[in-house]
Amino acid sequence: MLSRTAANLFWMARHLERAESTARLLTMGQRMAVLPGSAYRDEWRSVLRVTGCEPFHTKGGPVTEEDVVRILLLDPENPASIHSCLVRARANGRSVRTKLTQEMWEALNLSWRRFDGYGLSEACQELPALIDWVKTRASVFRGAAETGMLRHEGHDFMRIGGAIERAQMTLRLLDVKYYVLLPETDVVGGGRDHYQWTSVLHALSGIRAYHHVYGGVYSPAHISDFLMVNRAFPRSVAYCVDQMRWHLERLALEHGVLATCHKTVDEVFELLLDGQDGAIFQRGLHETVQQCLKLTNRMANEIAESYYF
């Protein structure tokens, strides 16, 4: 496979996954913003921090829902906005059109112009419907890929890109909730706001799965374990790392070479394996999350170097 083809498939999946993850973050922001005292806590700012888009808020003062919709949904100049991600995913897909099924291409091609002409007030009024639309389009694309795409190395690159993006969004969600939003007087490892923690599960569609594993007991340690090391939940970091390892092993067999990225993904796996049964929360969730983010970023760069992106 040509390196530019692999790169386009890799980044197409990352952009589409980022668009869906950002839509999920907007849902979380809406949930947290209706809680008592949300204006004082400036909850919408946390949504910008997760995506690294806080610098786009330049007017000062608290971050409002309108600010976040403008920056994360509509802004074509922000590379992390849903609008930009869908446009870039479509551009990547167009470059590798012959590698996609008709249904995959239609899912991309019907998405990229959706927000053209949307005004800010209109987008705010229709925000729940727009969020559901983004999540649905991403699901349609994944379903089309799952049922129709050949399981060649192009599929491997696509799945690796999506898994990296999904793992990093889960990590950033945990980090912002646990570290950035803590009141200065709170002690790390102490009591946490029940609704803020469960809002993270809602953002990742993990409420029912979490309840199946832990029953009705909601605690920060259990939630962090569930989202970090549970290997059965599709949006957990461990599940995503399992996906990366499996597809990287397929690429190694295809090319007959073990690259540095294969060692790095094993390093992430071992880090998570050592953090089961509450160990991650006890030794420092923020530190572990930052280490995982650093390793996954390094691995993405190593994949690009190893396969000549």
Architecture overview:
The chain is mostly helical. It folds into 2 domains: 149 residues, no CATH class; 158 residues, no CATH class. Helices cover 71% and strands 0% of the residues. It has 16 helices and no strands. The longest helix has 31 residues. The N and C termini lie close together (11 Å). About 3% of the residues have low confidence.
Largest sheet: none
Q: Classify the secondary structure makeup into a structural class.
A: mainly alpha
Measured by DSSP, the beta-strand proportion falls in under 5%
Gyration radius (Cα, Å) is 19 Å
- Counted by DSSP, the helix tally is 16
Instruction: Categorize the overall geometry.
Output: globular
Structurally, the number of domains stands at 2
Mean pLDDT: 87
Give the ordered list of helices and strands.
Answer: HHHHHHHHHHHHHHHH
The number of distinct β-strands equals 0
In terms of per-residue confidence, which ranges show pLDDT below 50 for 5 or more consecutive residues?
183-192
Distance between the termini: 11 Å
In helices, the fraction of residues equals: over 70%
Short précis:
71% of the residues lie in helices and 0% in strands. It has 309 residues and is mainly α. It has 2 domains: 1-149, no CATH class; 152-309, no CATH class.
Write the layout of secondary structure elements.
Layout: H1 3-33, H2 38-41, H3 43-51, H4 65-74, H5 82-95, H6 102-109, H7 120-125, H8 127-148, H9 153-180, H10 194-203, H11 207-214, H12 220-229, H13 237-255, H14 260-273, H15 279-283, H16 285-306
Helix pairs in contact: 1-3, 1-4, 1-5, 1-8, 1-9, 1-10, 3-4, 3-9, 6-8, 9-13, 9-16, 13-14, 14-16
